[in-house]
Design brief:
183 residues; alpha+beta; eight-stranded antiparallel beta sheet; 29% helix
Length: 183
């Protein structure tokens, strides 16, 4: 699981460096905020790249446009993180507040309308494709599956009896060989 996370972060960094990004206003303190893609639609995953955080290896980014607070991590003054734009947003500009170490800055994220779906495209299963609340964990339906299970059948019982008989015969054979050796 750890190597998967490293691979995804490395890919995200590569995309962040190679894709044109929107640069938000940073208040003139020598740092910048880049959002990739520059103008996301609702439900789109976005990557944030914040420079000018030399005193910190972690930070946060908060916006009403994000499904959750973004945890930023990195080194050498550059922090990165990713999140998803809320699916229920309307097009417009949304403030992004960045905190890293003792510095704070703000920027803006421009959300555009979702592209119109063609008549051939499959319908989305729900208007809320991204999480809007914590997921209720509970075994993924295992309890319902086990409640409807009928238990072992005749074939399982016969197989169990045959295996028990083979085990009993092996034990009896081994005991008889030991008793011959001790005589």
């Amino acid at each position: 699981m750890g190597s998967l996370r490293i691979t995804l972060c490395a890919g995200l960094l590569g995309v962040a460096f190679l894709t044109p990004a929107a640069h938000a206003a940073d208040g003139g303190d020598g740092g910048g905020v880049a959002v990739t893609p520059a103008s996301p639609a609702p439900g789109t995953d976005v990557a944030l790249r914040v420079s000018g955080c030399a005193s910190s290896r972690t930070g946060t980014a908060v916006s009403a446009a994000f499904v959750a607070e973004v945890r930023l991590t990195g080194a050498d003054g550059t922090l990165v993180g990713e999140t998803r734009v809320r699916t229920e947003l309307k097009a417009g500009s949304y403030d992004v507040k960045i905190s890293c170490g003792d510095r704070s800055r703000s920027g803006a994220l421009t959300v555009v309308e979702a592209p119109a779906r063609s008549s051939e495209a499959p319908a989305q299963p729900s208007p809320y494709a991204s999480p809007v609340a914590p997921v209720h964990a509970g075994g993924g339906g295992t309890a319902q599956h086990l409640a409807s299970a009928t238990g072992p059948g005749t074939a399982h019982a016969v197989t169990g009896l045959v295996l028990a008989g083979v085990a009993a015969a092996a034990v009896a054979l081994r005991r008889s060989r030991r008793s011959r050796r001790s005589d």
